[in-house]
Amino acid sequence: MMNRLRVLRAERAWSQADLADHLGVSRQTINAIEVGKYDPSLPLAFKIARLFGLRIEEIFSDDSADAKAAE
Amino acid sequence: MTATKPQPARSGQMAITVTGLLIFLSATGAAAPKTVGRLQGLGIGLTEAQIVLHVAPVLIGAVAVVLAQMIAAGRSTPVRFGVYALLGVFTGFILGAALDLFVGVSALITAVFGPGEIRDEHAVGWAVTAMCIAWALMMAAIAVFGTPAARALQDAGGDPECAEVRPRDRALSREGALGMGALGVSTGALTILSQTAASGAAAAVLAAVAALGFIGSTWASWSIWRRSDELQQRAVLQAYTGSALIVTAAVFIWAIATSLGAQLTLSPYALYIGFTVVQFAAAIAANIGSQIALSSSPRGRTA
After folding, report:
1. Candidate from B291, B301, B303 with C-beta closest to A28
2. CA distance B93 to B84
3. Which residue, among A11, A14, A16, would best test binding to B if mutated, counting the most B CBs under 10 Å from its CB?
């Protein structure tokens, strides 16, 4: 799973800890999501989408689906 | 709310912390008689040998930290942990060979509870006790001093934001310190109970301390679990799953070996210490695995 979390966070000039505070999770979780080591649960993904005013698929995208589309 | 620009930990901070710790450990110890004998065999005088055995582990440990930082710089988290673990084990071996640590504590235990027979499992029990207490002290330092303490304990290659301690982190560190401290006290009391011939009121007190420590540790674990987010809870579940698998496999092998006639007897104390060690190892592995990105490159896989 790929995501635009780091970009969206940077646009708002938030640190990882700032975003973590908004979402009620640890900074480690934000970092793990950003670098693609952890895929958030659906409730957390919805929370992220609501926070940025976007749809989930505008933030997260499936690696394999993207690769297929590229073919 | 603004973005903070955390400063990376400086490479010297961790080396100073570790050197300070080694100086403290060296001060609690007495030169190991066997190693003193070997040095005397090389023509070194008694006083000189004792000085060497007190100073050498500190110097070797300090060099090992600097070396580890140089080797680990820019590498992935598991590799960095591996390098530190390897050089940590090496330093521990040197320290153990050079000095009998905490001789005052050992003498105090003998004076209060009588002489005891220290078997291999007791040595492991004391190692677990020491590790719990050291871990508790580190977490307590982070809970009390916050970011400066986290920086002093972090290696320079890590993500700078890892060392930013927020109120939520402080609360978790406080409970973690209480939990680890309680587990250390519990394990220590149980070890004294197991290795000495304590009886009567002394045995009752030791048993009560061990039980209360275990309850305190369990309470702290539960409290931390409730406050943890989904990634942290997943790490805990992975740790327990991993340790359950290892323990089940070990007991299975034990059952087969015993059925085939092997004489493998373990005391409940040794089993408890073994389970604790496995849980520690699983917890560390799960933590590294789940939070592998903690100190990785700041570049994310962005769409």
Report:
1. B291
2. 14
3. A16
Q: What's the number of domains chain A is made of? A: 1
Q: Can you list the positions of beta strands (E) in B33-77?
A: none
Contact B52, B72 (CB under 8 A): no
B210 Cβ partners below 8 Å, 6+ apart? Answer: B186, B187, B189, B190, B193
- Å from B160 to nearest chain A CA? 11
- Give the structural domain span for A34: 2-59
Nearest to A14 among B1, B166, B296 (CB): B1
The complex's ipTM works out to: 0.85
* Tens-digit pLDDT profile for residues B224-258: 888 888 998 888 888 888 889 999 999 999 999 99
Instruction: Supply the CATH number for residue A9's domain.
Output: 1.10.260.40
Given this model, what pLDDT does residue B302 score? 41
In a domain, A32, yes or no: yes
